[in-house]
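During the no-cost extension, the postdoctoral fellow (Dr. R.K.) reprocessed legacy sequence entries with the updated structure-token encoder. One reprocessed record is reproduced below for audit purposes.
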Amino acid sequence: MADSTHSSDRIMTDARSSLAYQQGGGRRVGGGSIGKGSAKLKWQHLAKKLVRLAAALAVILVGAMGFGLFVSALGFEGVMITLLLMIVAVFFFLRYPKMKMPSRADLTRGSLTQTVQRTELWLERQAPALPAPAANLVNRIGGQLDGLGVQLQGLDENTPAAVEVRKLVGDHLPDMVSSYTAIPAHLRSEQRAGGTPDKQLIDGLERISGEIDTVTRQLAEGALDELAIRSRYLDYRYGGPETPLGEVSSQEASLPPPGAADTALPPPAANNSDSGVPLTFEKDRLPTRSRD
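Re-encoded structure tokens follow.
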């Protein structure tokens, strides 16, 4: 009887997990890159493949032409062999070598930009083992890492901010995911330590997502302040959003038009056509003081 009760509880737990899984979007199939950093690494790998393929095709063609010119005519069989070699080269160089996924230890190596890109690529590989809500959070974190990567450009990597970013992206985030994937699949929905591993993972990713957003805002504070200053200047110069296009603000309208007389200066005399101080001197000799 106890076994039957335990089995019923287990079935109900699995049913709740399945329902939450489907409500979260289910398993994504064939998803793309979660961020621009991982997409850039993929494109770099593909570009190297294409360069190798182009070199191999060039070697095959040059070899076939050289054989036809200096040895003997290729003929139908030679042309077919050349085409077959080109097909094999295309198949091989587009398929191999496989892209090497970064390991957990590789994430913190290199620059901060490389750490962000490798972490995105590593998260993509771990996503199939995560529940749907966590996978959605990983996608959101990928976009946040792109924004963080922009702010990291030009940042001194020896500053405390850079060190904290490396720990957050290269250590804390992967540790959270690795701790979850190390748990057997049939134990991830069991209640333990105040919650299930699924819920603990989702809560942890939520906190990390919020921390990434906070760090990005702190790093971008200077740019945000500059943008606010420029926005206030534009409001003063051209008016706010409510000012119709083609019109100027009240401050701008109060200014005199270009070329108008300055009202702060006295008007020139009516009978004096000359302006300024005369620079003409009399030609007579200057008077001299008489000596007694």
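The first helix runs from residue 2 to 23. The chain has a mean pLDDT of 76. The remaining legacy entries will be reprocessed before the final report is submitted.
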